[in-house]
Amino acid sequence: RTREQVRNYVLRKLDEEMPSSKAAGMEATYRLLGLLPDTLDLRRLMLDLYTEQIAGFYDPDSATLFAVAGADPAQLRVVLAHELVHALQDQYTPLSEFMRAPVDNDHLSAGQAIFEGQATLAGLQVMVPGQNIMAMPEFWETFRDQIRQQQTSMPVFRTAPTLVREGLIFPYLAGADFMRWWMGSEHRDTVPFGRLLPVSTEQVLHPERYYDHR
Asked: Which residues make Cβ contacts (< 8 Å) with residue 90, sequence separation at least 6?
């Protein structure tokens, strides 16, 4: 897909998941908390941000995986491994149904973190084939730093408010950390899908609270 086609896709998804009324409520709340400037158009920012970020994507509505024309081949190799995991996840937990489920935003973010975290691990394994990245704590520190450096090299991301930047990164980094913990636990031969999905970002960030159902 061309960048323009990607932008049109993102706009359609925003219309579904962040209609104008919902965006206005979010903007008002974040402004009251001092997290967004008064002049910021959140929907427009998210449209520009996702258009800038996407190199490939899996669309659960059509069960189709797309790559962005002109993307760096080395980057695409990692991205396609990541998106193929989403395609596999969709066979067991329909992603479009989950995204439209009547749950609160924090519950939704927790689920997204699991899906993105598992896919992130697969993409990382493509980057370092034949190595046990689960047993390399120094790799994870380097990876976090690299992610932040790569993101800040992108103009839209670099100028976005901290709230937006951290919200964009959270599912990938925190989700990957949770999945590392899960795979090192007694549940390592399963996946936390369905009724096992965390119900809050607190449980993702603090797995011990996941066990306590807090």
From this structure: 58, 60, 63, 96
